[in-house]
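Most newcomers find our protein records easier to grasp once they have seen one. A learned vocabulary of local backbone shapes supplies the integers on the structure line. An example says more than a description, so a record of this kind follows:
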Amino acid sequence: MPDDDRAFTVAVPGEDFSSEPASTDDASLADGPVRGRGGDSAITRVLGILDLFTPEAPVWTVDALVERLQLGRATIYRYLRALCDAGFLVPVAGAGYVLGPRFIEFDRSIRMADPLQHIVPPFMAELRPVVNGAQLLCAFYGLRVLTVLQDNTDPAITMSMERGRPFPLFRGSPSRVILAHLPTYQLRNLVLNHQAEITAAGLGRNWAEFRDGMRAVRKNGYLAASDIDKALVGISAPIFHAPGSVAASLCLVRRRENVTPDDEIFLGRLAIEACRRISEELQAFRPNAAAAPAFPVSRVR
């Protein structure tokens, strides 16, 4: 997509973003999600507004956006109109705005198009009585890992890694087992650009320590960890959409008091075997006897 203001005139007829005058307001955005998109064009700022809507702050008013983003009121109104016209936002009582129905439509499209969400549920159902806890299917998107499916038969289990909540690539067994199976050049890039986060996560103080730790995970075939939810143990194995190309992980979860060392080994082997079978089906998946399904290409930097 072109990184200029004119790109938005196609999507929103009647809104000439390219004619927006330069101003000190637009040039001095506040730090936050808007900054995270790496640009200062109109489309960057419009998309950045969506990042402000969180479970902790689900409603935003024009006044609040003006104060947060340090943009002119007319600019904010123009951006909100574009987002509302596209269904990304809807107005609510009290002059506020919330996320709109377009995201629900996107969610349905993702569920229907994602091969993992067609293939994995029967495996989860098969594992359910043996796991006697919870299961997470987690997908890999660059520096973030998201839970896309979850299954829980233990009402005492409450997980932080709920569906749709992003977690960093360096925390939690679902993330780290994916991390360990990335190509060496990507692991090197991560060390070059994220050494502080890697060290803080206990994954190594330098390339040699990080490399050796990732190699140990690959050799073991699964990873058990409790660094996110201390009362739980997550045991994860990788899923591959092509030989050597990791796409996701399956995490088997139990309460810590219900996991003995022997249980951990048993669940680890169970996860490895389930993921082997899932990977085989995923690599052979042809929904319409046509070309192979497309998988996101996750680039780490």
